[in-house]
Write a structure and sequence with these properties.
Strand content: over 45%
Order of helices and strands: EEEEEE
Number of domains: 1
Number of strands: 6
CATH architecture: Sandwich
Distance between the termini: 10 Å
Structural class: mainly beta
Helix content: under 10%
Number of helices: 0
Length: 82
């Protein structure tokens, strides 16, 4: 659980185009954390401040962080508690 922000950590073994987005339980995209950009191999951290793209704090609940690259998608469940 997190409030008001959480850190998403990921590691890339090779250079790859990656996108990171936050979705609600209904599958609606509420925040783009990282546009589809090329990243070099390495260890990364990105912080979600618990806000949507309109800069409003989201409600308490379960959200999905989706990391998407060319041939792979990984989803991480996040629990926002106010």
């Amino acid at each position: 659980p997190f409030n008001p922000e959480t850190t998403i950590e990921y590691q890339l073994p090779e250079a790859i185009r990656l996108r990171i987005e936050i979705y609600d339980l209904l599958g609606r995209k509420i925040r783009s954390l990282l546009p589809s950009i090329m990243q070099v191999p390495g260890y990364y951290k990105i912080t979600w401040d618990g806000k949507n793209d309109a800069d409003s704090v989201v409600d308490s609940g379960i959200y999905t962080c989706r990391l998407t690259c060319e041939n792979y998608v990984e989803s991480i469940k996040l629990l926002m508690l106010k």
